[in-house]
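PT: before anyone asks, these are the final sequences, not the draft ones from last week. 614 residues across everything. Please model them as a single complex and drop the result in this thread when it's through.
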Amino acid sequence: MSKPASPYQPIPVTLEKVSQETSNIKTFWLRPAQPVPFRTGQFVELTVPGLGEAPFTPSSSPAVADRMEITIMKAGTVTDCLHSLKAGAQLGVRGPYGKGYPMDEFYGKELLILGGGVGLAPLRSLLYQIFEDLDKFPRVMLLYGAKSPTDLVYAGQLEEWAKRDKKLEVLVTVDAAANGWKGNVGVVTTLLRKIKLNLAQTSAVVCGPPIMMKFATLELVQTGLGKDRIYLSMEKNMSCGLGKCGHCRLGPYYICEDGPVFTYDKIEAIAGLWE
Amino acid sequence: MVLAETLYYLSESGLAELLDKLSHDNRVYLCAGEELEYRIAPAEASGPGPWRFSAVRAVEPLKSLLFAARQDVSSLSPVPQVILGAKACDLASLRIMDHVFLGGDFQDPDYKARRDNLLIISGDCTDAKDVCFCTFLGAKPYPESGYDLNLSPLSGGYVVQVGSDKGTGLIESNSGLFQPAKQDQLAQRDKNRADLTAKVERQVKAGGLTFQDRLDKLVGRGSPDVELWTRNASTCVECGACNFICPTCHCFLLSDMEDRSGFKRFRNWDSCQYKNFARVAGGANQRPRRAQRLHTRFEKKFKFFPDRLGQIACTGCGRCVEACLGKIDMREVLKELAR
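LR: through. Structure below.
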């Protein structure tokens, strides 16, 4: 099967499985009609035929091209419909777009990964990539926060990762504890106090809701981490994904072409950055 | 016969003959119509000649032939088209549009098909609208590049300048219509050009556009929070007319519609002045206020494109000034920025 003639047209994908992560977050297991190789951190446009499309970063391993998992929170027209679908549904996908995570810049660094809520989805893909190259990382710290214990995505995997390798530190927190929760309570930045950072060797990757990204970034800067060492996922309302439609412009950049990952020094001066 | 010169003379009747010939294989569009209110319209709609060669740019921008308001992305429209009478400001806009739709890793197939199939016979302006301000932006009211052939009207005919291989081909295959341009014809063309340039410059100066500041610096340092944007945006009714009439505005939104075979996807013009232009799922919006959106329009034209392409995405055509229901005048906003 050949690629569609128009770069705006998706290739067909079959929804093979849906798994419930939290009350409003599901992971969609997709099988594209032809492989869609992507680099971790790149995004795709997922089509619900006849309704429209929306941009998502796959949460699966970039080492797998013939399958793709996307973890999606119910937040709008397209995602509401996606959440009503069952295995067997026909969808469309096009991409991947953007530059993704600059792995070359991460190798050799102590990597601090901060995730909030469904923002762990693209970071899981990054973690899979890191697991492929674990010998290139002296240390990897995953700090993850969600609103409550039932809002944690990939809860089972978080426990597995914590035991996986001594290079890998996994800390989890919730904003509000429920009965039986014995872990940390507080926003994700409170976890920074629980680890000892080697600032000179550290790079940070942040993905989550805007408010979480803002405070995590400001706190990292205050801690003394260089702004050029803080990598932020700045996803906006990309429509075409091709650098043409104008929707995802952020100051001098198109997020779809130049991002979606930017270091903070490149974007800190842009008005409305955290909106 | 190969004509080595790039400057020719074409009589009015010769132009009529050329158009007649072109209309066999092409859809021919003219910038023609009422005094100073020219429209881009199919030649057949203009009726039998003699039609008036447009003195200024048309009401609608040239992009209307290349970038449809609503386009099915799965279909192409590679109909050969000819535009006669496009002006310098519209040719300048194509550099922006080409960059957007043909540049980068992906090309827009419909734009490319239309662009490749468009023959541009441009023309010098012979008058100016009161909203014209191209000279303020360093441009001239006559084309210097971007055309296949350019016509400079003289009494009874035109000085023709060749601007591309396509234009050369057109002359070669119609060599009987073109004579070498004479010195006095060229001198007359140059005088007409200088006179009109001076007229536009006087108009620009009389309108107070006298500052020398670099526009990217002016717009770049202006935060969307400053009072100027709020005040100027206060009459904006969010109709999008400034975007749709602008020859360089290219933003669009893809939308899908179910049909019997599955679904169709359309590329629709969109406006950065609409409240939800930058809204994301879940409700966050980088530019919820009109002031922020007016600022973003200026930032895109006077900062973003100069940074990317080295060219301002404003041609000084003044269409947005004419179209704005809220009487927001780009020239006035620029003047305020420079104050």
